[in-house]
Design goal:
alpha+beta; 16% strand
Length: 131
């Protein structure tokens, strides 16, 4: 009988915590798939806020620059003989509503192939060696 009471108490606690978690701040998730600019190659000034990217390619993400490139005849068949190595820059302007002032905003970047560096307002916000 004690085991039954113990299991009932655990089940009640899980239900209670589940209900309480819905009382927290509402969360808003927005995908940022459109409105991106892309340029392949190195560009030391591309992280600057006022950088002119008007001549860059308009894209949506996910994006794979290698798909638009010619295949590499002697390339690795495991990569479809696509020229996937190199440096590329992606830019997007975010318009943050005034109503979000003082709130936590989390940006999640997913699916970056290799050695990404993320800049926010011209400052390096993070980087890692793998995708």
């Amino acid at each position: 009988m004690k085991l039954g009471n113990y299991l009932t108490q655990i089940a009640t606690a899980f239900l209670l915590f589940g209900c309480l978690s819905t009382l927290g701040q509402p969360r808003e998730m927005i995908t940022l798939q459109s409105g991106w600019k892309f340029a392949k190659g190195s560009n030391e000034k591309a992280a600057q806020i006022k950088f002119d990217d008007s001549k860059w390619q308009d894209i949506t993400v996910p994006h794979d620059w290698a798909i638009g490139e010619p295949t590499v005849i002697d390339g690795n068949g495991d990569t479809g003989k696509l020229p996937w190595k190199g440096e590329g820059w992606y830019r997007k302007t975010l318009n943050i509503p005034v109503a979000w002032s003082g709130k936590n905003i989390i940006l999640i970047f997913d699916g970056i192939l290799s050695r990404p560096e993320i800049f926010l307002n011209g400052q390096l916000a993070g980087k890692w060696d793998y995708g």
